[in-house]
Amino acid sequence: MAGYVLRRILMMIPTLAVVSAIIFAIIELPPGDYLETYVAELESRGESVDEKEIAFLRQQYGFGEPVIERYLKWVGGMLRGDFGYSFEYRMPVADVVGDRLILTVAVSVATIALTWLIAFPIGIYSATHQYSWGDYGLTFLGLLGLATPNFLLALILLYFANVWFGTSIGGLMDPEYLGKPWSWGKIVSVLEHLWIPVIVVGTAGTASLARRLRANLLDELAKPYVETARAKGLPEGRLLLKYPLRSALNFFVADIGNLLPQVISGAELVAVVLSLPTTGPILISALQSQDMYLAGSFLMFLAVLTTVGVLVSDIALAFLDPRIRLEGGVRQ
Amino acid sequence: MGQETQVVGTGPHASTANDRITGRADSGLVDIRNLSIAFEHAFGPVEVVRDVSFRIGQGRAVALVGESGAGKSIISRAIMGLLPRGARITGGQILFTDPARPAATPVDLASLAPSGRAMRAIRGGRISMIFQEPMTSLSPFHTIGDQVGEALRLHRRVGRREAVEIVTETLRLCGLPDPRRIMRSYAFELSGGLRQRAMIAMALVCRPALLIADEPTTALDVSVQARILGLMRDLQRELDMALLLITHDLGVVANVADEVVVLFRGEVMESGATEDLFTAPRHPYLKALFGAVPHFDMKPGERLVPLREIERERPAGIARRPMRPARAAPLLEIRDLTKSFTIRKAGLRFSGRDRQVRAVDHVSFRILRRESVGLVGESGCGKTTLAKMILRAIRPDSGTMLFRGGPPPGPGRVDLTESEPGDLALARAIQMVFQDPFSSLNPRMTILDIVREPLVIHGLGERAEHIGKVREILRLVGLDTRMLNRYPHSLSGGQRQRVALARAIILEPKLLILDEPTSALDVSIQAQILNLLLDLKAELQLSYLFISHNLAVVDYVADRILVMAAGRIVEEAPREILFRNPVHCYTRALMAAVPYPDIARKLDFARLETLATGEPRRWPAPFAPAPDGGMTFIDLGEEHRVLVARGTRPEALAA
Lengths: 332, 655
Hints:
With 332 residues, chain A is an all-alpha fold. Chain A contains 14 helices and 3 strands. In chain B, the strands form 4 sheets. Chain B has an 8-stranded mixed sheet with strand order 16-17-18-13-19-20-22-21, sandwiched between helices. Helices cover 32% and strands 23% of the residues of chain B. Chain A binds chain B through residues 1, 3-4, 223-225, 227-236, 242-243, 246-247, 318, 320-332, and chain B through 80, 82, 115, 120-125, 128-129, 131, 133, 136-143, 150-151, 154-155, 186, 188-189, 199, 202-203, 341-349, 351, 394-395.
């Protein structure tokens, strides 16, 4: 098992190397660079351009150098923890992202937890009470959640949160805590604001997750080993948890790798609407203004999350399913 | 389900059964009285079990016999309180008297809540059940020890150490070698026979008063089946346990059951002691069942009599030709065909221990024109790999396969090993029918589309022509042409297999490979299909490669039989010679393991243990693989050949 984990971790290195090359290529694809966009913008506003400063920046960040060298510089910097310099914010990328990364992770983890917490009981109920009124009702609710546009739900919840609870509109904390160091009050304030994006981002995911769990569980419930367990005299509840659910779980674990980036990118649009200080809005604007180090770091961050997610799910699967752990294969 | 069965059902059997039972204190272990079970349907309840009464005495083995759909499984589920959704007991009682508490009044299992505490205490504790498919009936996520131990802990208060001891003891009782290792194993790590033994151990760990076995050996090879049957019989005696055996195999019944209850469409047709029923079956249904089972004593040309004959019309142009003997020109000539696979021993626990397995090892044989060749062997012996190579789905490592049946425009003689996998002309000439008609037909295609798909793939004609052709073929296999637009799920197993057959012959192939085509079917349906295969062979001048582990079936269909073990053909002979005079120890072992539907010829379970298995290393000389690898075929005359060590004299085999 240890050898397997080590092998998988080593396999991440070439994967991430390839991904970083692709990301760099994509960022390089549009014509021009940030400085050109910047100069053009200044000129259009009629402001003077400090040729010296531009030339200095050009040299500092190696805009004139060949693509390969710049790529290596970027990757090498990231390995040392230097994510480059955001031109737009005029500060190191690490400082721009900092808190936002934590908040993004908070929103995402809370969303996933909420999704699972709601979807599991619904899925189990729907599968064990197939074609009952409860099943139909929950299905209807789920589809409703799936069909409601996220941004609309976000606006509605914002309104009611403000009217009923007096929560400030937008953001993930009350304005007074912005830029302040973390304190108990700030955490409480974040928690007060967190539930709206979590519900908004979670609703769509919950419905599809519950439907998939229902389908998986129905397949498992029809399998002969369920009847065997029943024939032993096992009570229904324990039976459900020990056998079919265990088996249906495989699918969810296998899905972790997809889940992380999906939730994070799904949250981005909502983050714009709710003006959340998460990473989403910055990524979008960074891509628009060709703020290459910022955008590149973000995309790398997503890539790392995905590969880590896949790794976690593979290890969990091998742990959960003895067939993956023990069964051999046949090759011609 | 028509009215006519109602008339049959209210016959004398039910009432006599009642008379036997009423008012007696000693009513046996389980006493089923006038049981009726119905399925809820959109248009009202449909009765699937009607007024069924029978008893299971303590320590007795009772067999419930009937075709699929006769209601035998439903009755067993009713005893267990495990009726499927929508099914309901509409009348009658299932009285259970626990032999451990003989003084207590019998419990009516039919009146207990299926998932209630009382029913759960009996289920798995006092009455337990084993199922047909030992692979899927065990959870792949839990070790054998966990699953067997769970059954024990559910019903008895035992400490961890004591539980391990009881489980170990039960596994040993069920003939599992090295129980400690088995306990830590998962189901997929064990062979089919070991899995079924583990299932039996799980059912017996609480020492139940009644074991219900639902087709316990149907999914197993004949030699494994014989051992499992022997085990069940021994355990039943040793533990003084009653057995309710559900099966459609009269051979199994004759070897295990004391009493037989014959079911037809949810009603008891006949019941009584096995000796009586087997020596003098009274009811026409039981007599008909006997007529449908192929056996080794059939005279040349004798046909099986299915319960219902397929009504089929021979299309114009295909006259019923007399069975012409096979012509000497070989259609397919296989020489030294070899195929190896690399098996990765295990997933993650041990890494990098690969093993080479020779699935097919220097196999040579011929199939003549209009000849039917039977291929017999246990699962894993390489017969399916061989079939796939002939179909060119797998490429052999070495050897040649000369085929002389390509369609006219192509060359007359092709080596299949060198042909292109996409060679459609060859695909037309060699077709295949698979074992399981439930998974070999696409459930989303209509019968018309399924049968005409080969024509579409081969670009033969337009849709309008196809419909005419499909109708003709369906009539040929005895299917109603009104089925054209139906989907496979509305067809019975036998009808589906006929659709699969229609799909295979619509391209007018020369060679048909039949891989266990009847092993998923009931005996009477099997008889229908086997008869159909014989007729089609004569009418369409087909050659067959008929693969099966059922020797009697092969004997009925094949002209010549090959016996395969561990990738090699070990014996080859015309059918009448092979079964009269089997020479190879493996062939003899296979023959000895066949359960006959005849109480005068019961299996000799003690002798079975001493017989050869599919493991060549354990065979006696001269059949064991010679240390220098020198094996050769020795010719005993009349095309009878046996694989022996080089230098063996024919006289040595006479004994």
